[in-house]
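Q: Hi! New to this. If I give you a protein sequence and the SMILES for adenosine-5'-triphosphate, can you show me the bound structure?
A: Yes, paste them in.
Q: Okay, here:
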Amino acid sequence: MPHLEFDHLNKAYGSLRALTDLTFSVGAGEIFGFVGSNGAGKTTAMRIALGVLAADSGEVRWKGQPLDLDMRRRVGYMPEERGLYPKMKVGEQLVYLARLHGMNEKQATASMEQWTERLGVAARRDDDVEKLSLGNQQRVQLAAALVHEAEILVLDEPFSGLDPVAVDVMSGVLAERAAAGVPVVFSSHQLDLVERLCDRVGIVRAGQMVAVGTKEELRRTPNARWRAVVDGASAGWARTVPGARVLSDDGREVVVELTGHDAGVEQPLLAAATSAGQLREFGPVVPSLADLFRGVVSETEEKDAA
Ligand SMILES: Nc1ncnc2c1ncn2[C@@H]1O[C@H](COP(=O)(O)OP(=O)(O)OP(=O)(O)O)[C@@H](O)[C@H]1O
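A: Thanks. Here is the predicted structure of the protein with adenosine-5'-triphosphate bound:
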């Protein structure tokens, strides 16, 4: 499978190291969620991919070749600072951008019509961009990334500021482009969305990739977590279970970490819960991406402090 590879990118702004050996790759047809705290280095990495910014070392490759000027014309990019001409009409602007990327007038017009239709801004084709609401400007920005039939999509926070309907449209479009074999990388702070949409996720912290993998891979914690809801129990019942570490206990709902993942590891907990009171709910806890993110970020912060 061809890959878009971000290979050992290093970048400093003066004395600030924005990226340190940042490495990850995105397969053709894969949606990759690029997440990290503010200032972690996501925009810097994406700008380097597009050649808007030069890396101090490292490179970005597609199908084994460094992204050169010609290849970069085939990348659909949605910059964080957005990049539309405010006083140009939506339709004209998209045709212009498609032509810049090598389409002829007829192809560019057909593509503009198709994408404005798909993204729900067809009625605004003759309006200046600045007259559109921010969310609609963003739909046009996505159309700008797609209008030249990009071979690669690199999108910086494409979901910020969108209403739920626009989020669904945007998600559908990204899934469709990925299904057509396009590698899609996007950054976002909306972790629920990243969790829903992405095949793989990379968590970057202070310019370094601190966790990368499928959601299942990232969730594979060394110990199992279980949750029990028990009515009429006295608080603290779970502490007596051998090997259990109580993570939270509000008297009714208890979350416990058990050593390992072996089959039946939860049985002593289940037995204790049943005898503690009226057992209402019992099951494994699957951490959300937000939980993983907090865990990874705080864990690396602790390591840094040590
Ligand atoms: N042009 C610049 N000059 C100096 N420092 C910069 C410049 N651009 C970014 N930085 C710094 O580099 C670091 C990485 O910034 P970057 O914008 O890549 O992060 P990000 O992960 O995209 O953040 P956010 O989620 O807030 O958009 C930050 O500390 C930022 O302040």
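A: DSSP finds ten helices and 14 strands in the chain. Let me know if you'd like me to explain how to read the tokens.
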